[in-house]
Amino acid sequence: MQNEFPSVESGGLDLTALAARIKAWAQELGFARAAITDTDLSAAEPALTEWLAAGFHGEMDYMARHGLTRARPAELVPGTVSIVSVFMPYLPAGTSNAEAMLQDGSKAYLSRYALGRDYHKVLRNRLQKLAERVQAEIGPFGFRAFVDSAPVLEVELAKKAGLGWRGKHTLLLNREYGSFFFIGELFTDLPLPPDPPEPNEHCGRCTRCLGACPTGAIVAPYKVDARKCISYLTIELKGSIPDEYRPLIGNRVYGCDDCQLVCPWNRFAVDSKEADFAVRHGLDDVSLVELFGWDEATFRERMAGSAILRIGHERWLRNLAVGLGNAPTRPDIVSALQSRINDPSELVREHVAWALNRHAA
Length: 361
Known about the structure:
Elements: H1 6-9, H2 15-28, E1 33-37, H3 45-53, H4 61-66, H5 73-76, E2 82-89, H6 98-103, E3 109-110, H7 119-138, E4 143-146, H8 154-161, E5 165-166, E6 172-173, E7 181-188, H9 208-212, E8 218-220, E9 223-224, H10 230-236, H11 246-249, E10 252-254, H12 258-261, H13 288-292, H14 296-302, H15 312-326, H16 331-338, H17 346-360
Parallel strand pairs: 3-10
Antiparallel strand pairs: 1-2, 2-7, 4-7, 5-6, 8-9
Helix pairs in contact: 2-7, 15-17
């Protein structure tokens, strides 16, 4: 990261006006909102320490490895003075009804955020363009873009910048957009004036997200045990999915949206205007049997450029086997499972055997 910004040091720049322009440029680049905060997240450190000590991060060792660096942006990127926090809606227009897909046990449910292109690349490219726009205006300055790819407390930064409040499911909520959006940050060495945080939380007594979680992963308001979370189990967990959670997963084969689907604030959720988030390969309405039939070459071809690619074909089949085990007992379901009973992967074979036992019972 560069640490050169002579125009600021000389006092020759109107930082308030620059901050306003940065927010406007961000919206021109497709971000719904942009706001600015400083680097002090000390108020979030106790909760982070407690969460890690409880082991709620599961096998995500990087969480513990980075420790409190997540709450100390200026340690992560020395020279950081202020942070531009942004968000971009991701719901693809015209997507099949999520609740209907969840109720049809023969369908595969994939989290709505993963139906299009990999959001990491999309947002990071836009943040890079935002930084380049600033450079064109003021000259070289220090910056670094992050999108769910480093030890950064993204929700805390967005909350402090005034983009919303943390819901009881721990996601960021915004009064005009709900929670179906991606968050990103631009760390800078510019002493930009910070925006005020959202003064109040607006969840009130509502606990719908806690009651909706299929596995009870939201163990208390504002506290998630990742080891129970379906998103963790189907994406982050590398090995065998614990038996007690398999029936609860239902047909959710990549991630889970249940806590968001029941949230009253998501009646304000808007469709994404970003073409890259449009549904690819009909993944919003597809059968478990069809996806289970993909060989590795097909998986890699169709998931190229998708966030789903990173779990690999083996875990993809693992997840689908669980979904098929929870599906209605039909000849095509059982036949699909039997086709992989001798799969080269021990992990796949284990979950296929479990699924077939479910149907035999």
